[in-house]
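dumping this here so i dont lose it again. seq + smiles for nicotinamide-adenine-dinucleotide
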Amino acid sequence: MKIFLTGAAGFIGFHTAQRLLARGDEVVGFDNVSPYYDPTLKEARLKILSDIPGFSFIRGDILDRPALADAMKGADRVCHLAALAGVRYSFEHPEEYIAINIQGFFHVLDEVKKQKINGLVYASSSSVYGGNGKLPAEETDRTDNQLSLYGQNKKDNELMAHTYHHLYEIPVTGLRFFTVYGPYGRPDMALFLFTDATLKKQTMQIFGEGKMQRDFTYVEDIVSGIVASIDKNYPEEIFNLGSGRKEELMDFISMIEQATGVEGKKEFLPMQPGDVRASLADISHAKEKLGYEPQTMIKDGIPKFVEWYRSYYKL
Ligand SMILES: NC(=O)c1ccc[n+]([C@@H]2O[C@H](COP(=O)([O-])OP(=O)(O)OC[C@H]3O[C@@H](n4cnc5c(N)ncnc54)[C@H](O)[C@@H]3O)[C@@H](O)[C@H]2O)c1
């Protein structure tokens, strides 16, 4: 298949492209290499992808509708991962979030419709569950209580996709990712920040006084869920993609310390606006309909990240 993949220079997009290419799909990557975090990391990912046969890349913005339309031509499926992805950053840049995550999402969806492309898989987020407090979160739980504009954007995407499916019968699958981690991970996320601080002997800032719990999902497991969603191409679905386990933040930090061999300096801070105390996915729906089975436990995934981090940054 020829897959049009937005966000191909991003963390999850990079790993998704590699998996699709490895099995012989053609991937057209589309990304504006946004400066939200270090673009040299994105360029490094693109450099790896550009050496794999079947990959082509278009540097473009999903807000540029003609460029997007042109790039999407001839695709069999669209996988839309491009977005502004940080919860905290959405407090400082609300206009950009509305533009890219709402208008940009609409451009992708409407172009899928216009070009009669047979299926869209897109990234949603566990943030749609907001302040529910019910664990584990199931796809049928209420999602009208978001705690950040980012979470609201993702819920809005799900509603738009639902409406387009209803009106135009486009196959749409939304994937609610739960805290994804792994090699080439995002510099604004906990694993990267804690590893970086630990190895550089700086103080890590631990929010929620260290009492938070998270469902951390290894990126290769997420990719398995994405690829299965592309292949199944259900008429309309929403899936949680998590590990189905929740980790205490302080245990997570201990595992980083073990993997680095360094005891980190810690500063405990209160919860940040927009944060939830705990997240945990019920993954039974994805198991049943996608054959989704997370393979990597956090105790194995963290050392893989640390090993990558050390070799990439030569630390
Ligand atoms: N990483 C996680 O834990 C997580 C959790 C839940 C949901 N998600 C969602 O998964 C998707 C991928 O996340 P990620 O962690 O790989 O983030 P990422 O920031 O690494 O990747 C997103 C990519 O989109 C690109 N992009 C941003 N604005 C664009 C624009 N206007 N036009 C074209 N490209 C643009 C960026 O340059 C970046 O390469 C996002 O939609 C994110 O919201 C991620």
